[in-house]
Amino acid sequence: MRFRTTFLCAAVAVLTTALLGSPAAAGPTLDAVRARGSVKCGVNMGAVGFAAADSAGAVKGFDADFCRTVAAAVFGDASKVTYLAITAASRFPMLQSGEVDLLFSQNSLTFTRDTALGLTAGPVYLYDGQGAMVSAKSGIKSIKDMDGASFCLAPGGQSELNLNDWFNAHKMTFKPIVIDNSEAARRAFFAGRCDSYSGDQSDLASKRALTPNPQDYIILPEIIAKSPIAPLVRQGDDQWLEIVKWAVYAVILAEEHGITQANVDDQLAHASSPEIQRLLGKQPEFSKAIGLQPDWAYQLIKQVGNYGEIFERNLGKDSALHLPRALNRLWNDGGLIYAPLMI
Amino acid sequence: MTGGAPRMFLGRWWYDRRARALLLQVAAAAAIAAVAAWIVETTTAHLAERNMSAGFGFLRQHAGFVIGETLIPFDSQDSYWRAVLVCGLNTVFVSLLSCVAATVLGAVIGLGRLAANPVLHRLASLYVLAFRNTPLLLQMILWYALLQALPPVRQALSIAGTIFLSQRGLRLPAPEAEPGVLIAALGAFVAIAMLVSRVGPRWRFPVSVVSLLVGAAALSSRVGVDIPVRRGFNFAGGLEMTPEFTALFAGLTLYYAAYIAEIVRGGILAVPRGQWEAARALGLSAWHVMRHVVVPQALRVITPPLAMEYVGLIKSSSLGILVGYPELFWSVSAMIGQTGHAIEGIALLALAYLVPSLSAAAAMNAFNRRLLRTSAA
Known about the structure:
By secondary structure, chain A is α/β, with parallel strands linked by helices. Chain A is built from 15 helices and 13 strands.
């Protein structure tokens, strides 16, 4: 029922704000966030490795950490985040209506999402691809062996479209089972209802990490479609978009320059590189151009870490997901993670 | 004096009851139209301000997704419009089947609650207690989870190699015949029924058995049976009942049967004791008492609340989205997820649920009127 309620609430919220005009449309998002004292961040709550409550009730994960970088940049305090759980159907209406300030919710960036919805995207912060997970017992080695197979799918996303395109291109058929409740869809797959679960590989790893016997399931190596994961904000507030963009860039620049959560104070005190000095706010007039405190980047690195630290802690070798960095290595290490110059 | 005539004219109108009623109705209609226009106007303006497009044009775009179970063909190249139609038909299909099944089951349980046999009576009461007092969604998810606990498809339970039951659902052999044969069979069946109704009561049974046997023998050479076979990942052929459909169908049927049972019981109890006693005093058998005296009177009480339950059932079929059955809400939700047209989608959904709900209400009202007419005559 919770899903239906949030969905309807979000729809009603869109309607009412469309009727009355929301405060978010009146002034920049930053003013609203400051007045409220926290960043409202829409996350896919319960996705292990992305945003899930730990045993102490604190929300942890890759997406949660990126929400925290924005809070650290705005307030100098990474803890000033209010996490709002989204569903596939409610996420965009929630952002459109101003119920959340931004989405870090495993969203693939698509043309429609960047244009038609009144939303716009920040930088890609995870280069992922859609794949398929099968049970190890099935003996399936490739999606090409799966003509006529049934696929459990998460609803509302592009994964259905990608899978359909791929099967059409290979002149094969499949039977989709789309349950509009990601928890139920996950359970149905692990109970054996479907031959495969298809989704972003990082999400498959996240779902697999929740099962008692992760080794019983394999994620097939094939990627049927690319999946660039990016944050979304509302169109028409460029300043807020810039803050979100540079929060992501700052963690990338930090890794590029070898700045870590542990050594950021040392770097601030001793680094001679002008770019590091500019990044960490040693030239206040320069750093202030974004409309935040000069030490915004220092705060987010100090409190959340650099890109590599965020990745390894939540998705990589220090996590239950054990994902390789793959495309998400830095550009100078053979990956795609790349940030503009801090000049 | 010059202003007197128009005032008198207006005054006369104002004191005429019919004219005043008309005036007030026109004013009320105009006010409602103005509010509606204001809502549409401001909504479109604010949507445009947010760079969100409005309108139903997106319904013509390719849906791009495929639908797991359909009654009419659907391809990913078809439009959103057709996707909504296909899933709307699924809603009608599951609702109709559940309405029939819930009515039959509800009548049986309702009569069970009135039975003198204590075991029957208690069982029926327990059923009503359990199914009426737990949320429908919970029941549906329970059925779905139980269906997942069946053996995997490779170890499917099988009856004589023709019926298979597994996690992937139930597979039954399906009759296979050309449409002409089916129509002929239907015609023959109607003819037999008419023949049987004409003959005397003593001949009814033998005549119906013989004619049905002759009919079946004549048809058997023209009707094939499509027996499900194991192929690839699942079974192919035959009639399929997926776990998603079964969970929704069972959930709706069992839940609404509990309500219908109480309506049936109430309707029968509403027939005055004197009617029962008078019918028995005439020497009518128990069946005839029910058939000719109690049920016709009870139906008048039962019909209106029954119509409400049917309407409720149709609306509750939207819970199918949570067990993965592609019904109306499922398709609109998928459409909103892909296109972001939430307002249009919800409006379409509201209209789409009004149609079957209002037609169910209208059909039951017509039936009710006919019942009142016949019982008055």
